[in-house]
Design a protein that fits this description.
Length: 642
């Protein structure tokens, strides 16, 4: 069959289908029956990426274009119907409240295009002819996403100035108008997309440090391995430099920090990995090779690195043409202080996970018995009902330790560990863990991180020294050594949460959920990002529900209370009153290594409780309340709640 005959046959089929559809729609009578959707042929059940085009030059600012049958234009969806629907009238494209709702609903719940088109078809047949026929039209999906190849990766770059301006417009005017300086932090990390493939997404992310923190991508790169060089950062560095030089709408732009885990930090700074002899980013301690690991046992008399010495070394390297240098050197950055140690990776995913692993599966001297592991697990599971909703995850089984996320490990290190391990873990190991827990807790609270910074450093020194004694010299690896420098990071940035990778890690999870199939994942991610409506950011906290487990608080005077019910009466200033069970007599939960009351850790007894009306404005410091047989424990929430 020649091409002319094929076109004629297709034209006849299309006209017949169109005529049949029109006749059916005209003949339908309005009814109150539920909407029914036509079943799709299995051959048409594809995602819009399955036939997306692949290009080699890039631009992101694209708009939805009409379909073209030329060789350089490929439809976004496999069906011919979708190509025809691109000729919809302006009336169909006109925004309506329903179409806006559908757009927000589809992007919020990551509805696939074929499912959304089934919904649109049913709605159009049941009283909403103004809706577009295709998901691509409704969501304004770009027809083409083109990319360049850099650093051995497929790369797409977003203009930083345009995206930053767009993100700032989402904030309330009272926040942006009052800010003369906007602080940005950046993150570079690898994200595996599939379990059965080596494909990794390497994004450069930017965070705006205004309440609430907003994260968005600057550059997205995709490849089977990590980048072969740092050429993929070139456009981002140029955009950052331009913003630092010219500002944005009269506002000064500053860089707070560049947050990376240890391998990525070594990569972007173009230095040796942390397994080298002199590879601590903060000091010049020489490592010692023990049992196949590079260890850093020293805690005193360490020489700190400085920006000047780092840049001098990089200049010498350039002159001798030894190795390429980091593109960050072209920016006015402190190459030591503004590349902080990320406690999420090194304290939570590093040390806390390692300790749990050796307690569960390690050497007999430090391993818990099966019965002890079961007891700890039962205690953890019993705490599920008392963990407030501000925590992303509830405690779970120790057998799942390999799948614990960073938030779960932080929860254990700072809050639940001190309760569930007491009386089960060996006393020496428990006391050692408590030193780590107290030091980390102090550095998470902005007030305590400054007031008790020197003390937290002494605790970290003791923790590192005892680690070698209890677990062996081979245990004092770079992650353990880096705890020595966490107090400096908390002092420089205000707290550990002010320079952590948690906001970026949350966004990486969102990026991963945008991938729907293994075909052209980078194109999928970019299209889903473009589809997302730029809704305003909410800065007002939702009204608290004073019900368990969200009704425990620590008052300013160090008293503990449980909110029982909201009352109709108000105080003189109009603030609503709440009936609370107030525990006026409190005791420290522990005294070693420090009185726990400075951390907001108390134990109380019910017989000392009184009922009292307290204004809602005083209930600002939320806590975890754990009721035991003979006492009740209150643990103040110290980390930053987003």
């Amino acid at each position: 069959m020649d091409s002319k005959t094929k076109r004629q046959r297709y034209t006849r089929q299309w006209k017949y289908a169109r005529r049949s559809l029109n006749e059916r729609c005209i003949g339908e009578q309005p009814s109150n029956n539920p909407i029914t959707f036509q079943e799709r042929n299995n051959e048409e059940n594809y995602t819009d990426e399955d036939i997306a085009s692949v290009s080699e030059s890039v631009e992101i600012g694209v708009s939805v274009e009409s379909c073209s049958s030329g060789p350089d234009s490929v439809a976004d969806s496999p069906t011919e119907e979708n190509c025809i629907s691109d000729t919809e009238t302006e009336n169909e494209m006109a925004p309506t409240s329903l179409s806006t709702f559908l757009q927000q609903w589809a992007t919020k719940h990551l509805i696939k295009h074929n499912a959304l088109e089934d919904l649109l078809r049913g709605l159009k047949q049941n009283g909403h002819p103004e809706l577009p026929s295709t998901a691509r039209t409704l969501l304004k999906t770009p027809r083409h996403i083109t990319s360049v190849v850099k650093s051995g990766m497929e790369c797409v770059h977003f203009n930083l100035r345009e995206n930053l301006l767009e993100q700032l417009q989402r904030y309330p005017r009272e926040i942006t108008d009052g800010a003369t300086t906007v602080e940005l932090s950046f993150n570079i990390d690898g994200l595996p997309l599939f379990k059965s493939s080596k494909t990794h997404l390497w994004p450069i992310l930017c965070a705006i440090h205004l309440p609430p923190i907003s994260v968005f991508p600057v550059t997205l790169t995709l490849g089977p391995t990590k980048p072969t060089n740092l050429d993929f950062m070139e456009e981002a560095i140029k955009d950052i430099q331009e913003l630092l030089d010219n500002g944005l709408d009269g506002k000064e732009i500053k860089i707070r920090c560049v947050v990376c885990d240890a391998p990525a930090r070594a990569m972007v700074k173009k230095i040796k990995q942390y397994s080298g002899y002199y590879r601590c980013n903060k000091c010049t301690q020489k490592g010692t090779w023990v049992a196949g690991r590079m260890t850093y046992p020293e805690v005193d008399n360490l020489t700190s690195r400085s920006n000047d010495t780092f840049r001098a070394e990089m200049t010498r390297r350039q002159e001798n043409e030894e190795m390429p240098v980091s593109p960050f050197l072209s920016l006015p950055l402190d190459m030591v202080e503004q590349f902080p140690i990320d406690y999420m990776h090194q304290a939570c995913l590093g040390i806390m996970k390692k300790l749990l692993t050796v307690w569960v599966r390690g050497d007999r001297k430090v391993r818990m018995s099966a019965g002890q592991i079961s007891n700890v697990t039962q205690r953890l599971l019993s705490l599920q009902k008392v963990i407030p909703s501000c925590f992303a995850r509830k405690p779970r089984h120790l057998e799942d330790i390999d799948r614990w996320k960073a938030t779960e490990l932080r929860q254990f290190a700072v809050y639940t560990g001190k309760i569930v391990l007491k009386g089960i873990l060996a006393d020496q190991l428990y006391d050692h863990f408590m030193v780590f827990s107290v030091a980390l807790s102090l550095l998470l609270c902005p007030t305590l991180a400054v007031e008790h910074n020197a003390y937290s450093k002494e605790l970290m020194k003791y923790f590192i020294e005892k680690t070698g004694e209890l677990y062996g010299e081979h245990f004092t690896v770079y992650n353990v050594h880096s705890m020595l420098h966490l107090p400096e990071e908390a002092l420089a940035f205000g707290s550990l949460d002010a320079c952590s990778g948690f906001p970026f890690e949350n966004y990486l999870g969102k990026l991963k959920r945008l991938v729907r199939s293994g075909k052209q994942p980078l194109t999928q991610v970019v299209k889903r990002l473009v589809e997302m409506p730029k809704s305003p950011l909410s800065v007002e906290a939702s009204k608290p529900k004073f019900k368990r487990p969200n009704n425990a608080f620590i008052l300013d005077e160090g008293k503990c209370c449980e909110a029982i019910e909201e009352r109709e009466e108000s105080d003189d200033s109009g603030c609503q009153m709440l009936l609370c069970k107030l525990f006026e007599k409190t005791e420290p939960l522990f005294r070693d290594p420090r009185d726990s009351r400075i951390l907001g850790c108390f134990k109380v007894q019910s017989r000392h409780a009184v009922m009292k009306l307290i204004p809602e404005r005083q209930l600002t410091r939320q806590a975890i309340m754990v009721e035991k047989r003979d006492e009740t424990i209150f643990l103040a929430i110290l980390h930053e709640q987003r």
